[in-house]
Specification:
34% helix, 3-stranded antiparallel β-sheet, binds adenosine-5-diphosphoribose, Rossmann fold, 241 residues
C-alpha cells in the first residue's frame, strides 16, 4: 500500500477521527495564509492588527484589515479540500472538525458542527454590551457600532493574547482525547494553544497524521506526514474511504 492508501485505511479503521485545520486548507480558495510566501503577516505586524491593544489604539485600521478579509472570504468558494472533508464526515463513523480558520469555508462546503477555535469573520461582538451579532453578507462601515447600545463593534475573532472561547477549547480537547486518530491539515503548528492539540493526541496514545505543503515543527513527530496540497490529497483520500 502507498502512503495514501495507508492513511485511508487508518482513517476508516479509527472509528473516531478528529481533524485540525489551518489556513493551508483555504489557500486554494485564494485566501492568503498567515506565514510563508504571500502570507498576511508578511509586511504587516500582527501586533498592530490582531490584538485588543491594537484595536483600542486604532480601531479604524483594525476594521480596515478585517473588512478587507471579510470581503475576500465572502468572494471565495470552498475548494476540493473543504468539500472532501465534508465527504469524510459522511463516510467515516465519527468525525469532529476543529479549525483555526475564521472563513467559514468548511461550513459552506457542507461540514457541520465545526469547532471554530479562533471565531469567525462574520460574527461581530459589541465592546459595550458584549452581545454577538452575525453580520454575514453585510458590508460593514469603517467603524461599525452596536444598534443596541451604540458602542463600537469588534470582529468576532480571537486575537493574540486573548483566550479561546472556553466551550470551543473544551470541545476541541475532548474531541482530540476521544479520537484514536488526529489528522492535522495545513497549519504551521506554531500558534498555541491550538498547536498543543497535537501533543494532547500523542500523550493520549493517539496517532497523528499531517498533510502540509512543507515540513513543520510537528512533521518529525507524527506517524505519517503527507507532503502536498490539501485540495489534491484530501479528495484522493475521500475516494479511498
Ligand atoms: N495545502 C496544504 N498545506 C498548505 C497549503 C496547501 N495548499 N498552502 C499552505 N499550506 C501550509 C503551509 O505550509 C503552512 O504550514 O499551511 C500552513 C499555513 O500556516 P499559517 O499561515 O501559519 O496558518 P495557520 O497555521 O492556520 O496559523 C495559525 O495563526 O495568525 C494566527 O489566528 C491565526 O489561525 C491562525 C493561526
Amino acid at each position: 500500500m502507498n502512503d495514501l492508501e495507508t492513511v485511508a485505511s487508518l482513517l476508516a479503521k479509527a472509528g473516531r477521527v478528529t481533524v485540525l485545520t489551518g489556513a493551508g486548507v483555504s489557500a486554494e480558495s485564494g485566501i492568503p495564509t498567515f506565514r510563508g510566501l504571500g502570507g498576511l503577516w508578511n509586511g504587516r505586524d500582527p501586533m498592530s492588527l490582531a490584538t485588543p491593544q491594537a484595536f483600542a489604539a486604532n480601531p479604524e485600521l483594525v476594521w480596515e484589515f478585517y473588512n478587507w478579509r471579510r470581503e475576500l472570504v465572502t468572494q471565495a468558494e470552498p475548494n476540493p479540500g473543504h468539500r472532501a472533508l465534508a465527504e469524510f464526515s459522511r463516510r467515516l463513523t465519527s468525525l469532529t472538525l476543529v479549525t483555526q480558520n475564521v472563513d467559514r469555508l468548511h461550513q459552506r462546503a457542507g461540514s457541520r458542527d465545526v469547532i471554530e477555535l479562533h471565531g469567525n469573520l462574520f460574527e461581530v461582538r459589541c465592546t459595550g454590551c458584549s452581545r454577538t451579532f452575525d453580520r454575514s453578507g453585510e458590508t460593514l462601515p469603517p467603524l461599525p457600532r452596536c444598534h443596541d447600545c451604540g458602542q463600537l463593534l469588534r470582529p468576532g475573532v480571537v486575537w493574540f493574547g486573548e483566550s479561546l472561547p472556553p466551550a470551543m477549547w473544551e470541545a476541541a480537547e475532548t474531541a482530540v482525547r476521544r479520537a484514536p486518530l488526529l489528522l492535522v491539515i495545513g497549519t504551521s503548528a506554531v500558534v498555541y494553544p491550538a498547536a498543543g492539540l497535537v501533543g494532547t493526541a500523542q500523550n493520549g496514545g493517539g496517532a497523528v497524521i499531517e498533510i502540509n505543503l512543507e515540513p513543520t515543527p510537528i512533521s518529525a513527530t507524527v506517524d505519517i506526514a503527507l507532503q502536498g496540497k490539501a485540495a489534491e490529497i484530501l479528495p484522493i483520500l475521500a475516494d479511498l474511504l
